[in-house]
Amino acid sequence: MSDYVLIGATELPAATANIYKNSLLSNQTVLAVSWDQVTDTSMPITGYLLQVADYGSTDFETIFNGENRPSERQFSQSGFITGAKYTFRVITLNYNG
Predict the structure, then answer these.
(1) Which one of 49, 66, 93, 94 has the minimum C-beta count within 10 Å?
(2) Which pTM does this prediction carry?
């Protein structure tokens, strides 16, 4: 039996609308964030990527890969510099990417 590929004839999923800082779990060097679930889609969501960049930069780095884990919508990471500004974005994944 040969391998098979699942291809969905649909658009890429919608962007996640909101990212929230969890103030109870965050401190000067640890940041805890969560984001809304994407529900407006014609194919099931397969996961999320959380990316961060220095404020004003477009050089984003993936800090959370939730591929194949669509129910995981929160993440904490240490090592942030006190007083520095960062930009976060969430990428929603489905079978098309």
Answers:
(1) 49
(2) 0.79
